[in-house]
Input
Amino acid sequence: MKQTLHFVSRKTALSLAVMSALSTFVSAPVAMAQSDDQNQAMEEVIATASRLKGTASAVLQERQNQAFVADIMGAEQISRTGDGDAASALRRITGLTLVDGKFIYVRGLGERYSSTQLNGMMVPSPDPTRSVVPLDLFPSDIIESLNVQKSYSPNMPGHFGGGNVNIRTKSIPSEFVFNISGGAGYNTSNNEDGYFYTGGDDDWMGKDDGTRELPGIIADALRNSGSTGVEGITNLQTTQAMLSAFNWDIGPDEKSVDPNYNLGATVGNQFQVGSEGTLGFLATMAYDQEWTVANEKNGSDLGGGCDNSGERCFTKYLDGLSTEQSVRWSGMFNVGYEFNNNHKVELTNMILHDMRDRVRNRDYFDANESEEGETELRRLDIIFEEREMITSQLKGTHNFPWLNFAYLDWYVGTSRATRDAPDILEATFEKEMDNGAVVYEGLQDLAATNLNRQYQQLEDDSDTVGWNFAYPMSGENWEVEWKIGGDYWEKTREAQSIDLGIRHFSIRDEYKQGVRLDQIFSPDNIANPDFYTSATGRGLFQDGTADGDKYSAAAKLEAYYLMGDAFINKTWRISGGLRWEQFQQVSIPYQAHTDLFAVSGDDIADTVFNKDELFPSLALTYILDDEMQIRFNVSETAIRPDMRDISSSFFIDPLTEFLVRGSPLLRSAELKNADLRWEWYKESGNNLSVALFYKDMTNPIEMVELSGGEGTPQLLTANAEEGELYGLEVEFLQDLSFLSNDMAGFFLSGNITLSDSNVKIGRDNPDSLYNQQLRDALNASTVTTSITNDERRLVGHSKWVANLQFGWDSDDGNHSTSLVYNAFGERIIVPGVSGNEDAQEQPFNSLDFVYSYYPNFNTTVKFKVQNLLGEDKEIMQENLTMWYKEVGTKVSASFSYEF
Output
């Protein structure tokens, strides 16, 4: 069977930008294609070996030819494992683990220790809780390859820890392509009915039609009068108008969810323009809708006395159903022009949109208020969240044969990332029981309890520009390529959160009764003066919005580098150089509901993060022969605080649901990195590599729990004193033809990472950065720290990570099958305090099956089963479940046809 494969081997290069200090351009690395002769030589391949090994040969060749340690995953490999987005696919790469379905941990370092680029350019993040782009935004349909560089090179940003992830999207095709695809699936956990609500008319598009937005009458009151605008109302008609302006059609109702489905289409072509020019385009569109019904649990406030036994327990615990609808759609349009094989300009436009709408209806246990069989509680919470990224990238590559084959590449890009959560709702219900029967249910009858509604918005805008120039030189037994470049990148952020409470005690008892919010807050009840405990309606609303919940932030990076890449006697390769960066960042909080700063000008100046640094790097490769080589890399890098990290405002971590705050006193983490890797590239794509790595860290950035008090636990982003990480990686791909000729269609591939880490916080040193930041966070001159372990593993670090794939391709090329396994060891999610153990995410053993059928050259039928073992995700502390989520087994089938 004949299969057309498009392989582009790329060189990474940087660009030099000359601009004013406050220019709105930004820079980042960009990829450059090799000569057209090389591309055409690889355009069409007769697939006589396995499909995976065919594409693996291309990416392995690219990996072998790179000067620095990197792992690469191609589009066919992603298709083979059946992963639907970049995040899911990257967990297959050596030493990478996936957290919260969105963020990649490289070699056990948290997501802040990795950086993400799109086609070599930096892009903003629509997630206010993380410093990097959530990788689940990028559907696999648009991905040509994923490049994870694990050792630092000067043509990359100095913000480098575990590695840099470069998502390379599909480029202009060399011939006409047009294909359509569609699929459907089901999750076994969806057998149980969930709870949901009507929503808006545009929910199927992943957009709110205005149903959930903050009512204008309330927005005006907040904007015009500050916090007194809703709390000081003394007019009943105004109170009624405000309350009725909310959307109360949210039940929720029982719902039997629909099957999951997806649609996609791609069209592209290339045309001859004149005698030496070609003009091409590529357009892709994809839509995906998925429903999930799952049991979900959360525990907090670890203590004792939950029952008469006195055993340790979480004094607050939630257990029940989560029902979630997710809608994703994406579009990409690329257009490019190439002239005489030496000059190429390409424009890439992309929009990625992701919506999740989740309703959780769960039993709620509170040791202070619950009494089994008499008084029981129920918690309802709803979140509707839209994330969107729009990016335009213009880049050019130019080869100059007349100048000793020097080359120049350049790029400019602009991106906008937004997050809109127009109505996050939480309500607590109380059930009164008598002999096991419910005699009353309604809003919790407790003075301090509110029905809470939050409205959150975030917009990040970034611009980038840059260029690189490379000049090759050669002698009798040596070759060297000198590179110079520069980057300029700028990002601005506008974010705000409004927190409103509707006080239960302001509603008369007889009107609190009901199991549905639209029943309690019906139009008749709202219009009835007897609904309110106050004749004027005063005190119904509580404004929980604080100073700093609205903030503006900006960051700017200017960088230049010089490096060389030399071959000596075809045996030694020496690459390295120096990079200079100046990084500036500031975050300015506003007074609640105003455009007035919440801090003085002097305080703003004190929080400006401004630092220039030099980052050296050296890579040495010893080439034993055409198949085998040994690499050694050393470098110095830094991990800088993100915009949210230097803000004193709180946000909710989406995984643990703890409150997290940053520190204006936060400093960069400084890293010294070393890598040693032996690589063996055998015939037919078989390969084996073994690597050792080590990282020494000064002032590593960690999350530390603040102990004391009740309510939602709080985490502080702080600097530890020192840390280190070291480990071993093994990776292989081997067909089974050595057993017998009949086994030639079978192959085994995989990787394993064994590592350990240690971090010292500085608990017992009063002058440590951690203690300084803790005193500042608590606004106290002295504090008593109570973290349990002053020395421990890094947050998020797993001692082992394993991936294994067993595959088969039929002799006629019409069938292929893969059994794919992924697992990781325990990793700390929340460090313990007050003698409590660290909370650790438990190992998750993922086993997936993918079968593909190719009845003819144009058609592909695919069948997938994910999580065959039926495992669930869980975080444990003191042998108690802090967090649990049912995953279920997903079954899906898809069809694609290429015209």
